[in-house]
Design a protein that fits this description.
Structural class: mainly alpha
Number of strands: 0
Largest sheet: none
Shape: globular
Distance between the termini: 16 Å
Helix content: over 70%
Strand content: under 5%
Number of helices: 14
Oligomer: single chain
Length: 308
């Protein structure tokens, strides 16, 4: 029987696929910016500035206009979300690429859903993982390994780079944990605006040490402008808004499982835009991810489902 709750949940799945598709495609647009001389930190700052500016325009048309959270404790929660889901996550992930192989970084960062599920289950006893969920998460994680390695089972360990990638993974897991409490008291628009604000604010120490920004003659190039607009308006503003809403609708544990699809989407874009080949390992890994995601949604406690 079709109910409003079921319709909303199905719609949430489509939005989750849209977000993962956009986030999986950002490697192309980010790579273009990096090839034009921008650093990873500059890309993050510029895309968050665009997102926050657009969010502020929306905020001025909204009533009531809430500037701060209800308490200092909640405001500190928003600060933590801005750091773990914004500045620290992007800095550690992108910096890791300078010290370790892309394969290592992808393998570690793409395990975010598994770390998030374990962390949430540890702090929220009502959301403990059932055996079938654990099996599903492990199968999906194995699928990510197969997709990323693509038949090349050689890894070069780099303590610093791998540690940075693991930090990024843990940052997103903590963000997924903290968003549960935030979603209970605030809507997605308020949370997202705070994430952008504190994400930028927490970058000030980095800017003090590395104050350089790209010259205007580079920023005014059409390919730079359009790529930054896409990363700021779509990949940041729209997708962060959608993702925070999805976490509330589907539950943090199951919504996080969609992130297993990130490397799949990335490879599909590389195939479509860069003529890279689809391999047998990619097909096997993708099948494992889909099977794992299906199992991970079985017998989820009601507390982790969308609330009517």
């Amino acid at each position: 029987m079709t109910t409003p709750e079921n319709i909303r949940r199905i719609f949430s799945h489509f939005i989750a696929l849209f977000v993962v598709t956009v986030w999986g495609s950002t490697f192309v647009f980010t790579k273009i910016l990096l090839l034009h001389g921008l650093t990873a930190a500059q890309v993050f700052i510029l895309r968050f500035i665009i997102a926050y500016a657009l969010m502020w325009v929306f905020f001025t048309t909204r009533k009531p206009r809430r500037l701060f959270a209800s308490s200092l404790k909640d405001e500190l929660l928003m600060l933590a979300l801005g750091i773990t889901g914004g500045s620290l996550y992007f800095l550690t992930e992108n910096t890791a690429l300078n010290y370790t192989a892309t394969t290592n970084t992808s393998l570690i960062v793409c395990q975010c859903p598994l770390f998030a599920a374990l962390l949430i289950a540890f702090f929220h006893k009502s959301e403990r993982l059932r055996p079938v969920q654990i099996a599903g998460s492990l199968i999906a994680a194995a699928g990510v390994v197969v997709v990323v390695l693509n038949g090349h089972f050689v890894l070069h360990l780099s303590p610093l780079g791998d540690a940075l990638a693991l930090t990024a993974c843990l940052c997103w897991a903590v963000y997924s944990l903290l968003i549960i409490s935030a979603n209970k008291r605030y809507d997605a628009v308020f949370i997202t605006r705070k994430v952008f604000f504190y994400g930028l604010l927490s970058m000030i120490p980095y800017l003090i040490v590395y104050p350089e920004m790209p010259p205007m003659n580079i920023l005014l190039k059409p390919e730079i402008i359009w790529n930054l607009i896409f990363l700021g308006a779509v990949a940041s503003l729209l997708c962060f808004l959608a993702w925070n809403w999805i976490m509330k609708q589907l539950g943090a544990i199951y919504a996080s499982n969609y992130l297993y699809l990130n490397p799949v989407v990335t490879i599909l874009f590389a195939w479509a835009l860069l003529s890279e080949q689809i391999t047998f390992y990619f097909l096997i890994g993708t099948a494992l991810i889909l099977i794992g995601m299906f199992l991970a949604d079985r017998k989820i406690p009601k507390s982790d489902r969308a609330q009517p």
